[in-house]
Specification:
Layout: E1 7-10, H1 16-27, E2 31-34, H2 39-52, E3 56-58, H3 66-80, E4 85-88, H4 103-131, E5 135-140, H5 153-173, E6 178-185, E7 188-189, H6 199-206, E8 213-214, H7 215-225, E9 237-240, H8 244-247
Parallel strand pairs: 1-2, 1-4, 2-3, 4-5, 5-6, 6-9, 7-8
Length: 252
Amino acid sequence: MTVNEKVAIVTGAGQGIGLELCRRLVQAGAKVILNDVDAALAHKAAEEVASEFGNCVAVPGDSSDQTVIQQMINKAVEEFEKLDIVIANAGITLFGDFFNYTPEAFYRVMQVNLGGTFFLAQAAAKQMKQQASGGSILFTSSVTGHQAHKNLAAYGMSKAALEMLAKNLVIELSEFHINVNTVAPGATLTERTVSEADYESIWSRITPMGRPAYVSDIANAALFLVSDEAKHITGQTLIVDGGWTCISPSPY
């Protein structure tokens, strides 16, 4: 899949899916700006990717902060002279019972998952429009944007909204040859989830394909959607969940 010599920004990439995306992009010949809210984690991850594969530069900070968003855009242009791909992968999950969910938790989820993604897409699209060479934008949604999941009302609605944003931006960005899509992971084995009790065994039992996703499963789908081979695909969501949303058994 063709991403060679392209310049990409990936948020929420200090570990897990985001880090695997950076590895795969750089391995395929892209140059990457790696973002994570944890500065130490961002620098460590970027150094590891750079030492193994090549061009990867850290820009740490809160990806929902307008200043950090512009720093990422500026760094891509200053370091690599352009911006071709943006993967808005950063997001937070704050579980909570609907009856007791706090305004603070609600608005933080919306700020990061929606605000950060919206304004990163806006800033990236302005740069891509100025370059007049097109580009690809990808949002990370979730199966919880398609199927109800206990204690994730706010998170689920934020992910469903991202998929609608991708559809709406088809109207705004297609004339500039910028395609916008969404990848929706199901249960995925990451540093965070493997620490949860029985996570892998539970999701292996209720996933039709017999296991939760690996980060490589999500990265494969994402890499395709931002590659030249997918330029005529826009406004779409690709669910990567081993078939879980087709039958949707609860893990509880």
